[in-house]
Amino acid sequence: MNPTLGQERQLAAKPVAKKKRVMVVGGGTAGMECACTLSERGHEVTLYEKAGALGGRIKLAAMIKSGGCEEVMHIFNHLTAMIEKSDVEVRLKTEVDEQLIRQEAPDAVVVAASSPYRIPDIPGIHRKNVFTIPMMSKLAQVPLKMFGPDKLASMSEKFFPVGKRIVIWGAGAEGAQCAEFMRKRGKDIVLVAEDGDVGGLIPLKYKERIEPWFNRAGVRVVRDATVAEFGKQGALLRFSQGGEELVPCDSMMVMLPEQRDPAFFDMAASLVDEVYEIGSTLGGENAFLKHAFADGRRVGCLL
Q: How much is the pTM?
């Protein structure tokens, strides 16, 4: 993925006139791309990641997409190799807070951390058989490290720790891809779309294939509905035009998009003159790999 395509002149990594000390917060795709660009231009860059490894959720995405038309591990391999070759200082298992920013006193901060996913506070949302994206990411960390995305995807065809009948709440890119992944593993799926759209920001050439595949595979899509409650009998759907339906199921997966949380940006901006947000820090409308690369390169060339 080349973020400079068609903008080679505007996004050229030109040497800086004034070297700056830059904190890049978040070691996912956007953070790594930005850190590499900043370092290439001559800035002094430190990349902070609160987890024990770089990559963010890219390995989880690679597992979900494994065997399909969107292999993404080469992106992880490329970016981590570029980080290793660069002068970027990487600090893993380090959570950036106000105290650390004051201590480091950088000239600029780039916020490349993920936004929180929307998890509505409804009755039953904390039941053990309700799975969220952050929860699944955490559960997959160790197996992904041990086996890698492709092997784990293959293993999940024989065992996946969710019930047979699943309601997936959220039909954007996250929910649609999750529905396909789970159906291929023999699960009975009901996909709940809060509006009329299925697939969200998935590129059109792929998006137009989703519903025909769902129809062939027996995935039920329910539009213009939310989940009002999740109980022992299943998910209670509430329709925007009135009415309710209880959908019997064993598990529910909450696949609603990220929402920008301005708290960290506001705190950093009160301490540092230059603060930028990139990638999914800006919310679900900016959560794709293409956004991460484009933002990382743009801000890397801007500073």
A: 0.90
